[in-house]
Amino acid sequence: MLRIVRRSSGSVVTWRRAQMILLSAQGMDPARIAEVTFTSPDRVRDVIHNFNADGFDSLYPRYRGGRPPTFTLPQRREMKKIAKSRPVEHGLPFSTWSLAKLADFLVAEGVVDDISIEGLREILRAEGVSFQRVKTWKHSRGARLRGEEGPGGASVRHRRREVIPEPGEPGVVFSMDEFGPLNLQPHPGRQWAERGGRHKDPDRDPRPRRRATYTRPHGVRHLFAALDLGRNVMYGHVKQRKKRAQFLEFCRYLRSLYPPNVRMAIVCDNYSPHLTTRAAANNVEIAYTPTNSSWLNRIEAQFTALRYFTLDGTDHASHAEQASMIRRYIAWRNRNTNNPRLRRIVERANVA
């Protein structure tokens, strides 16, 4: 009994019961033992009686599982499957499921005998299903790219370094696009500030606000950016225009990054300045994404991170200041490709 009480490991329940038995053996009454062990006298008497009847076996708790789950694993999977489907697919004239409609349908189809709305809510939450806003989506008017190899599939494999190029195939793949227009205007964003309302400090500074711009006489700029999928390195140049001359200038810069004998592929959308470019003479192949499918281009997710880290909540005074911040962000991004926050934003934006 002393060995159980003195050791620092083991069950707390066993230690507490052994303590009660030792105090009782020293002649302490149950009321006093209850004060020392922070429990009730009835509980102390039960422990003493159980020890007198069963001995040391009564010191060890007999844990038992709760009642069996109401719904089996196949039933829960079927609930999740039906919740993720559309009511129209089951012949119902509804655009979306409510919990009441979904519960009635599950009972009518014989998936479960009965289920409450709150019980269904808890099951869906445990299965990782939540009620979310539906976003718009553009489908390509070209090939569906199901089971086919297109620019998006090739770029993903290059990004994962799963491609060993054969003779005549591109050894380097760039995802390229333009980002802009870059205006000199206050961009909405978030920042830390003292809270207002009932709990605000009466001496706090006024809440920061952005200026209103009625005229913007400074023009716009455009960012030409490319992502080297094999090395995961981003390049960017800020230009005043985004026409064929500027596009070719940026392509020449990308071509200069590798020896002329290395065949290069540039993935871009079918914007008119891109279509008029002939690059075969420079050992470069331009791969165009299908119409309304520019999201296949992996550079688009990098633009989401660029907007989040660099442009949100800013109000630049000049284009030189804005361009400098963009260039410094690109340098930071190339040094911190494994940054957890950066990776989460990019992975969330990568829909393809």
Summarize the structure.
The protein has 352 residues and is of the alpha/beta class.
Order of helices and strands: HHHHHHHHEEEHEHEHHH
Sheet/helix structural class: alpha/beta
Structure summary, number of beta strands: 5
Mean pLDDT across the residues is 82
Taking the sheet with the most strands, its summary is: 5 strands, mixed
Count of runs of 4 or more consecutive helical residues: 13
- C-alpha-based Rg, rounded: 33 Å
Portion of residues in helices? 25-40%
The low-confidence parts are 143-156
Percent in strands: 5-15%
Report strand order across the widest sheet. 3-2-1-4-5
Morphology call = elongated
Q: How many angstroms does the end-to-end distance come to?
A: 65 Å
How is this structure best described in words?
This protein has 352 residues and is an alpha/beta fold. Helix content is 39%, strand content 10%. It has helices at 2-6, 12-25, 30-37, 41-54, 73-84, 99-108, 117-126, 151-159, 244-255, 272-275, 299-311, 319-335, 340-349; strands spanning 172-182, 221-228, 233-239, 264-268, 284-288.
Topology (SSEs and partners):
Layout: H1 2-6, H2 12-25, H3 30-37, H4 41-54, H5 73-84, H6 99-108, H7 117-126, H8 151-159, E1 172-182, E2 221-228, E3 233-239, H9 244-255, E4 264-268, H10 272-275, E5 284-288, H11 299-311, H12 319-335, H13 340-349
Parallel strand pairs: 1-4, 4-5
Antiparallel strand pairs: 1-2, 2-3
Helix pairs in contact: 2-3, 2-4, 3-4, 11-12, 11-13
